[in-house]
Write a structure and sequence with these properties.
heterodimer, A: about 550 residues, alpha/beta, 21 helices, 20 strands, B: about 450 residues, mainly alpha, MetI-like fold, two-stranded antiparallel ribbon, 17 helices
Chain lengths: ~550, ~450
Amino acid sequence: MTQEQIKNMNDLLSIKNLFLSIDSENQEEILKDVSFDIKESEIVSLIGESGSGKSLTALSIIRLLEKSCKIKKGKIYFLNKDILSIEEKEMREIRKNDISMIFQEPMRSLNPVMNIYDQLKEAYIDIKISNIKQEIINNLISVGIEDAKRVINLYPHQLSGGMKQRVMIAMAIACKPKLLIADEPTTSLDVTIQKQVLDLLLELKDKLNMAILFITHDLAVASQISDRIVVMQNGEVVENSHAKKFFTNPENSYSKTLLNSSLYLRKTTNIENQDDKNILCIKNLKVYFPERDNLFGRNKSYVKAVDDISILIKSGTTHAIVGESGSGKTTIAKAIMGLVSPTSGNIEILNKDIISMGKSDKRDFRKYYQMIFQDPFSSLNPRMRIGAIIKEGLCFLKPELSNSITNEILRDVLDKVGLKHNSLNKYPHQFSGGQRQRIAIARVLVLEPKLLICDEPTSSLDVTVQKQVLDLLIDIQNKTKISYLFISHDIKLISSISETMSVMYKGKIVESGKTSDIINHTQNEYTRKLLKSVPQIA
Amino acid sequence: MFTFLLTDIFFYIIIISLIMYVAYVRKTPDILANWLYVFRSRTGILSIVVLSFFIITAFLDSIHIKNKIYNNNTKQYVYTSEIKSFLDIILSPMHENYEKSYSAPFSSHLYSKETVNFNNIDKREYPRLLYKGNHNKYSNNKIENIAVISLFSIIKSFFICFLIYMIIFYRTIFKKNNNFLNAFNNNNVLCTSFFIIFFIIILLYDLSTQYYVLGTDKVGVDVLYKSIKSIRTGILIGTLTTIVMLPFAIFLGIFAGYIGGFVDDIIQYIYTTLNSIPSVLLIASAILMLQVYMANNPHEFENIYERADLRLFFLCMILGLTSWTGLCRLLRGESMKLKEVEYVQASQTFGLNKFSIIVRHIIPNIMHIVIITVVLDFSALVLAEAVLSYVNIGVDPTTYSWGNMINAARLEMSREPIVWWSIFSAFLFMFILVLFANLFSDVVRDAFDPRANKKYE
């Protein structure tokens, strides 16, 4: 036995100098010299932004890489066995018994045409137990599904996101693995459910004595559960240290940036441009969707997406709406923009009722209120050049402008959002997520709106990019006295950028008021729960 | 004198709109850049060259003339009722004489034995061919003879290619910044593919003066001639039908998907109803109606060519009317999806009207589906023609078409020994046309997709 192997004895998994590249013309190296170890019953968090190679590292461990990915160099030892050199058959045994994985998207990880019992049974394929059904029920109870007897007969679409993720975890721990790889298991879940899942993972770790490799981009989540933090950037491990040390005193400069971006604080907390003009005033807005047509085209029941809400935004301020998915936040935004028609209620912008407004008046008025969408990857037409995308609103809402003025405005707005002038002739796919969101902001800024509705503008972006986009939005507000209606699920982020806020739950506003009041001493049960669930960096 | 058949006129319209599109593209730098990508890619240039030869053949076959002859009785010039195309005139060595029956490719005898009277003794033997296959010009050995002919055609095609290359080279020297020609000039593939195609054409032409390269059919017609004449039918059915079908599919599909509601219901009812009628029956009834009409109104048709042509035209129309439903359904689904995409919603917040959104956002993003479907349909239509000929509701039996050749091959395949060359040549020509149409559409789709990873091959 060599020196190195002896050293590995108490490591469950150890990755040594892993190099990985994707088969393409330029043979780009995705992973460069990645090495770290996982000890028994230890939770290691793998942190990095999108494209840093976190998921590929995980897939290399379980050997589920795509064919185009080639491991160039390096070794991965699992229980002192080099798992990169063993036969596929042997590897399958390891996957069956020792390493399990759970994925980010519980919606897509379960087969929609199989019920929970059949899906879970697949995980027990090699385990000889006389009473499998009882075992499955016990397993489900252990992941916190109390009425397991009922749940095993349900299909995935009948379960909520959190329940699905629990079922996924139940499947993963069915074989009592020594190592569980969790690839962003809570990213698509609401905060309250996220907390439950994290608690569950901690509990299971102790119960089953298993190690967890937890992949995440969220430092706060990582700080909640991990013993050790491994930070990756551009395919390299830049820091590998104990959680406590990492969060108090990170060594690497990139880790510091990450940490700073996560502890987001508003630069200028007090803005003077606030005046008493009403920008947006929503009164008793209701948006009901018909649930299902019966035979004669009449419908009997409604989904109350937005149920009797009122919001008031003063000029130059930011009002935030916070809530979990399905609480009706986005529906409000769409109702204001006229993308869905409200069932009843008033929406007044600059003291003008926009619901009863005539078509041509509305067209002229539209330039005063605009919207930024959540996903910058789908909000830009992939077949249009950036210039045409930004110009679109101008051409239709301010047709009186001449060509040279339009071009002037375009160049101006690119400077404002920090993009280069030559971007105008490029296509959206040539930009990163953050840059695309800047383009989306530029597209509405050219119209010089008074109210900008931001529907989760940063939730699909990496933390460092998130900070840049938020800084840009605040910067614009300070310069142009624009008002924002900021929609988010992230109460932590909202607390740092908004003056007033509303908390939504199932289509209703449960609490509304000054942000600082709500954050610091809320009266409402639900808000308290929401605040408690938000992971804090310890 | 020139005469114009109905399908000729449509073919001219297609060619003219193609030329107008080229003129338009040359003025629009964005689209020009995409097309230059097609011209620079190897597959693109190769398929363009091959397809343009097919189109040129079909075009030559669409210019019809009547001959003037002197009538001795009335003492004046009259026009014959026979209509010839330019292609017929070019290919005249191939079809001025007919053999008696089947003969295999490059054969010097007929394919079946006959009783021949020789010096008053009846003998069963394979009779010699009357016109071709026996006059070996350069050597008495057939293989040597063919080799010599091939050698000559290599030299000829090399010479022609050299001339073409010189013309291009000459023009680029004196006309600088001519992107269009620079793209050609940089490309050796162009010269190579030109060379190969010229070589094949000259070789076939030279060989045809002495042999039946693809044999003869039941009544002794050169199969190569038949296959070449069928190109026009194939291309017409492919393009004309597509042109009839596309407006229905695109506009109804998008309206149904994007506008939805009541409009969607009506359009869906129309295409489900149309789909529920077996298309073969629909086509059969339409063709039968046409036949009855032609039988009742014989005075409207001057000659057999016009009747055959009207039937071809009618077939294209009815095929077009029955085949838009599939694409329409696809486009409906895609527009429903696109309607909910955020960039469409973003432009709704700008107050764009429905028409502008359809033109600016929906159509560009469904074009890839249209291109793929059109090319697949093009191949399917060429094949459908064969199927319809099989049940006698396809093109007129006198029209040269691959479908008719395949239909005839039914009986030929059941002979012993089988006659394979008829179906083989129909298959070969269809294969080449469909293959290069597919390759071409692949490159075009890549060229117009900004997300595609464009690299110059």
